[in-house]
Every structure is written in C-alpha cells, then in structure tokens.
Amino acid sequence: MTTETTQSAASPASAGGSGISQPRWTHIALPSGDLDKSIEFYTTMTPLVVVATRADADGRNAWLSNPGQWETPFVLVLSAFNSAAGTQQGIMKPFAHIGIEVPNREDIDAIAAKARANGSLWWEPRDMPDPIGYICAVHDPDGNVVEFSHNQGVFSTVRQLWGPESS
C-alpha cells in the first residue's frame, strides 16, 4: 500500500535518516475490514494509541503503539484495503495472538469484564502453568486474538537479559 501521511508529525527519514543502527523488530501488520471499528477497539481495549494514519487510492491504515515508546518503537499497523471493505479480515485465531502484559492480576479481571460486556471475550480469565501466568483473551472486530497476561515474565525476562542492570 502506497501511503501518504495524514498527520503532521515529522518523519525521522525525512530528517536525514531513520535513526536505526541495526536491524530492529518494528511492527506487525494486520488487515482490517473496518479500520474505524478496529481503531476504536484497540484504543479502548488495549493501552495503544494512534501514532499516524495514512490513506491512498487502495485504502487506509493506522499505526498504533504504546504512548511514549520512543527508545524501541513497536507498532501495530492496521490496514484496510478498499477491495476488502466490510469483510472480516482476521488471520490470528484460534491461538495465534498479540500479547500484552499488564502489571496487576486485577487488570486481567477488569479487561475480561469489559470484553464480556462488549462481546469480545475470547478466553475467560485463567491461571496457566509457568511461565504463562494469569491470562484472558479478547478478539478484535476482525476476529484477531489479543491475549492479556499478568506475571508471564516476557517484559521482565528481556529487561533482565539486556537491561541496564544486567551483568
């Protein structure tokens, strides 16, 4: 998809370079049959915010990320192609999923309650064996699965391995 920025944020590439000195894990892209519904879902059910939106003759897309995540940016790209408008485009199911780790066990229950109320709960909250922790999952408007976990350790494992306090 050829894109055109619809926000006025300056692009690092246009400022003379990407800022990347080595290969980086930067994004995952998912198709969407209804971009507005998908943006609403991800900005209300997850901590993600819209970073940029783009449009061209083929369709529209949106980039979402954690607020302030500038040191190691990672973006969820949602792409809605005009040729697939109104169709369910989900490709991450029944187990494939996006994972989001939350700081408190109660966060899982709150997310599940919210998802139960809006009809998007995929997996009820449950304790899983190490290293998975306490989880639930929801599905986006296209059927893609988003897992929420507490005490899974993905975040802390990477920080311990490469963080400033690693040996």
Arithmetic mean of pLDDT = 88
How many H/I helical runs?
Answer: 3
The outline comes out as flat
The radius of gyration computed from the alpha-carbon positions, rounded to a whole number of angstroms, is: 17 Å
**CATH superfamily annotation of the largest domain:** 2,3-Dihydroxybiphenyl 1,2-Dioxygenase, domain 1
Structural class: alpha/beta
Termini, distance in Å? 43 Å
For the secondary structure, the number of strands is 8
User: SSE order in H/E notation?
Assistant: EHEEEEHEEEH
Contiguous uncertain segments of 5+ residues = 1-11
Largest sheet: 4 strands, mixed
CATH architecture call of the largest domain: Roll
Helix content: 10-25%
Order of strands, widest sheet: 1-4-3-2
Q: What is the CATH class of the largest domain?
A: Alpha Beta
| Strand content bin | 25-35%
What is the number of independent domains?
A: 2
CATH topology of the largest domain: 2,3-Dihydroxybiphenyl 1,2-Dioxygenase, domain 1
Describe this structure in words.
20% of the residues lie in helices and 32% in strands. Strand 2 and strand 3 form a beta hairpin. The chain has helices at 35-45, 105-118, 154-162; strands at 27-31, 49-56, 59-65, 75-81, 97-102, 121-128, 133-139, 145-150. The radius of gyration is 17 Å and the shape is flat.
